[in-house]
Amino acid sequence: MTYSALDDITVLDLSDRLAGSFCAKTLSLYGCDVIKIEPIGGDITRNWESGNPKNSSDSPLFLHLNSGKKSMTLNLEHIMAISILKALIKKSDVLIETFKPEKLASIGLSYHEIKSINPNIILTSITPYGQTGPYRFYEYDELTVFAMTGAMHREGLPERYPVRYGGETSQYFAGNTAASATTAALFKRLLHGGGEWIDISIQECMAGHPHQIGRRAPFIYAGDIDKRVSPRTSATGDREPYAVGTFKCKDGYFSFLPLGPRMWPNIAKMINREDLLINPRYDIPAKRTDLRKELEDIFQNWLNQYTRSEIFDFVQKAGIPGSPILRSDEVLSNTQFVDRGFFQTVTQPNGMILKMTGEPFRLTGLPKLDTLPAPETGEHTKEILKNILQMSESDVENLYKESVI
Amino acid sequence: MNSTNPLSGIRAIEIAEVWAGPFCGCLLGDLGAEVIKLESIQRINRGPIKPDADSGGYPDGIPGTDPWNRNGNFNGVNRNKKGLTLDLKTTQGVDSFKDLVAQSDVVYCNYARSVMENFGLSYQEVRKIKPDIIYMLMPGYGNDGPYADYRSMGMAIDAITGHSYLRGYPDLELSSNSLVHHPDAVAAVNGVMAITSALIYRAKTGKGQFIDMSQAESFMTHLGETYLEYQITGIPRERRGNRHPAFAPQGVYKCLGEDNWIAISVKNNSQWNLFCQLFNDALLKDNRFIDLRARIDNHDVLDKEIEKITQSYDRYDLFHFLQENGITSGVVIDSGEDTYAEPHLNQRDFFQVVEHPSAGIFPLTGPIIKYFGGELVNQPAPQLGEHNNYILQDLLGYQNSKIEDLSINNVIGTRPLFGSDMGGSRRIKP
Asked: Residues in chain B with pLDDT < 70?
């Protein structure tokens, strides 16, 4: 048996959608035994969006969020399901849930009741707006909750509408924060005993993010308003604007962020134009900012000759922060990620072989755990009822008949 | 120290700047750890410090006589820490660091892996002093592989992980995208989980360890479905802007007032019917929007129709009205005034009033991890070298004469040295 950081920890994942599932999945990567409780029809993300796998009804999102979990179906509308859930809670260490606030209490599972079943349980609640406050029952999705964090208003062009980030950013960020909070609570429990109720608000996680803190401080300190700006502007305003941002090159796009005028010589040398350094037209930052258009043309002409991978070498030699913009397929074959063995090859139940993302950090004092596929709906229902709750075959059959599972 | 907090009794040393390491430390501090931020008076790592009063980074725009203690961004992301200065380029500095390590549980650093090695403070060296130390390096691309020594920033990780490719307006070139440093924050949050997992392992086995974090890998776990989608469909995902592939309409629309917007997400036919009934019955019978397929195909025209409605509403009135009718929406709030005025965030004590000895009293962003019954840690960001005496005298038991000697040799101090690197292009005036 391999020894892991979080082994002996059983997590009940009662969540729907993204943040809670990701929290549980992240915990599973470090050894937690995660039981995903699904409605009889399966988790809604199994059919989320387009792009479902061949020979399978499960979406890429579901496969990603649930790899390594066990699946058990439970019809929470049924009174018998609640007693099964209570029995499972008794045997668990962590309960992750994403119901609307007060929903659990309405089915007889308030925190108080959960605690009376298992005084050491850690209840991790993840909701768009938290357990308290006027918006606690409001509906959300990535677009609308991201809007409510401050991150979106700043994103995009000044003359256009604000635009959100590319992924399910705030839900992932909150789910990850919840996994950290849960781990910290497990540490405290190990030393001092006792459970915890953690209240994670997706809105707060993203609004309390350093990006927003950095934008909010100038407002509260001095009344400065941080609006959407041209993509060639950087936060401090004096950073060689003709080379800031995203540029087209020979085979795609490349992002640069020179750190201030001290990088002017690095840039000039990188683009083989050391002559510019002795040209009085460009000798101070203010002139280079005024003449940004002609410098951007020079820079662009240089970029047009090279590929992203060539430019990546150049920026590393020049000491200028920058990276190629990769597409999802290019990320999979990137030399660094391949060399470090980040992606894990996992055979799915239907025989399909997929490369899945690995660990977000490596605990090098511990052996690496295998990455496992996501479960089929209810794949482990029987096993869990029999092994964890010691139910008999006929009891289990009865539950199927009663549509409890 | 408060015994109800998860990490009380844990001491961590932070060697970091910008966001990834500092925000990790900020969260550890929120959870009750004693976080000692290690800085030097030779090189100021507090963001670009501008001696000129041209930045709102300072209270009332005034840098004062100690601008390094008054930088808004720094003070915001360094709450709940103590400040120590040590010049690690000197033997005295390294020796003091080692003395501190002997009494600490965790060391973490967000610089390139060579930085600690060059100070003679690699994991191998540090564990000689404290065998069960938890030691985390979190460079951009990880601690081995061809990019191990590459420099990086959040925006670079955003690009290489494929996130930049998915951001921005679908109808414009990628060069219109702004730079985003979100992966820093993700690395910070994962750093907290890494450290607390390692603390659990240490509590069970007595063993410390080295944590190898790649900020890129940490963030790629947030994009996992996009890599799977390509493998399964053979088609890489493209930008979607504010739209969803399976719902319509979805978008951001103008409201009354300047730069005021609302985000609306109509998720199914019954919500669409309701939306039309509430605002404009004619849309319901309009052939261009008759079903989901039609609404997706005619989304641009549909957006114009919706904006005709929204632009005559106050954004908050509309938000509450839609939510009360079960239609998903959100106000596009800005990070400043709107966030500070947000009733929900205020009711949940999102802001905490912090008294900073140099910057003054301001409500700043509070903890994002909330435990019911947990006690709030609410200390201001440390001033440069503010806790030198507490750490060297009280923790390490140094004699006054030794501390004076460190001070005379500029190993410690509370003001940047003349000519020190201020993090931007400017040098501090004497």
From this structure: 1-3, 48-56, 421-430
Which tokens belong to A95?
């309960």
CA–CA distance, B318 with B67 (Å, rounded to integer): 43
E strands, B48-188, in order? 82-85, 106-109, 134-137
Question: Using CA atoms, how far apart are residues B104 and B410, in angstroms rounded to an integer?
Answer: 24
Whole-number Å distance between alpha carbons of B274 and B322: 10
According to the model, what pLDDT value does residue B1 have? 35
Contact check, Cβ <8 Å, B216/A205:
no
What is the Cβ-side half-sphere exposure of residue B29, based on CA atoms within 13 angstroms? 27
Contacts of B168 in chain A (CB under 8 A): 156, 163, 166
User: What pLDDT score does A52 carry?
Assistant: 46
Whether the CB of B328 is below 8 Å from some CB of chain A: the reply is yes
pTM score: 0.97
* Domains parsed from chain B with CATH numbers: 11-222+349-408 (3.40.50.10540), 250-341 (3.30.1540.10)
Contact across the interface for A179 and B193, Cβ inside 8 Å: yes
Q: What ipTM, to 2 d.p.?
A: 0.96
Choose the closest CB to A50 out of B169, B246, B345.
B246
pLDDT of residue A50: 53
Continuous segment of H or E residues that includes residue B229: helix B224-233
The answer, for A217 touching chain B at a CB cutoff of 8 Å, is yes
pLDDT tens sequence across B351-391: 999 999 999 999 999 999 988 877 889 999 999 999 999 99
Mean pLDDT, range A46-51, rounded to an integer:
68
CA distance B364 to chain A (A): 8
Burial of B131 (0-12, 13-18, 19+ CB in 10 A): exposed
Question: Are residues A6 and B200, on separate chains, in Cβ contact within 8 Å?
Answer: yes
Q: Give the DSSP H or E segment for A71.
A: strand A70-73
Cβ of A323 within 8 Å of Cβ of B184? The answer is no
B207 reaches A (C-beta below 8 A): yes
Instruction: Among B176, B261, B335, select the one facing A154 at the smallest CB separation.
Output: B335
Kindly determine whether residue A211 and residue B424, on different chains, have CB atoms separated by under 8 Å. Answer: no
Nearest CB partner across the interface for B350, out of A147, A184, A207: A207
- Mutation choice for B interface testing from A191, A227, A246 by most B CBs within 10 A: A246
Place of tokens 């200390």: B379
Interchain proximity B56–A336, CB inside 8 Å: no
Domains and CATH numbers, chain A: 10-208+358-401 (3.40.50.10540), 241-325 (3.30.1540.10)
Instruction: Quote the pLDDT of residue A222.
Output: 86
What is the DSSP secondary structure assignment for residue B427, as one 8-state letter? B
Amino acid residing at A371: T
| Alpha carbon of residue A3 to chain centroid | 26
Q: Would you say the C-alpha torsion B358, B364, B367, B371 has a positive or negative sign? A: positive
Chain A residue closest in CA terms to B333 = A150
Q: Is A148 on the interface with B (CB under 8 A)?
A: yes
Q: How far apart are CA A316 and CA A131, in angstroms?
A: 47
Cross-chain Cβ contact A245/B178 below 8 Å: yes
Peptide bond into A321 cis (omega under 30): no
Q: Which of A139, A184, A328 sits opposite B326 (nearest CB)?
A: A139
The SS3 call for residue A74 is: coil
List the beta bridge partners of residue A201.
A127
Question: What pLDDT does B46 receive?
Answer: 85
Q: At residue A149, does pLDDT exceed 60? A: yes
What letter represents residue B34's amino acid? E
Mean of all residue pLDDT scores within chain A? 93
Helices (H), A308-376: 308-318, 328-332, 335-339
pLDDT at B429: 41
Beta strands in A208-289 (DSSP E): 245-249, 252-256
